[in-house]
Design brief:
The protein is an alpha+beta fold and 80 residues long. The chain has one domain (24-79). 48% of the residues lie in helices and 14% in strands. It has four helices and three strands. The protein has a three-stranded antiparallel beta sheet with strand order 1-3-2. The longest helix has 12 residues, at 68-79. The chain starts with a helix and ends with a helix.
């Protein structure tokens, strides 16, 4: 059973890098932000609209990401 579990989990990609190890100038994508905040995509976009989550930036025409430093600041403000 243990071998089966390790076989199944080794194929799962690391979706969420450790945000504490990332530079403030780094970027995270929507799946990582959803994991970090434990919310849905719709909740992320509602938070962007009402200002509780920082606005993302367009890295390319089809790539949207959030600045790590701004996300950390938003999390710190939410914790207070």
């Amino acid at each position: 059973m243990k071998q089966l579990k390790s076989e199944l989990t080794k194929n799962i990609p690391q979706v969420f890098p450790d945000i504490d190890l990332m530079s403030d100038s780094g970027f995270i994508r929507l799946p990582q932000l959803k994991f970090l905040l434990s919310v849905s995509s719709a909740t992320i976009w509602r938070g962007v609209k009402n200002g509780t989550i920082p606005k993302p930036v367009k890295l390319t025409e089809r790539t949207t990401a959030w600045n790590v430093g701004l996300v950390r600041a938003a999390l710190a403000a939410k914790a207070v």
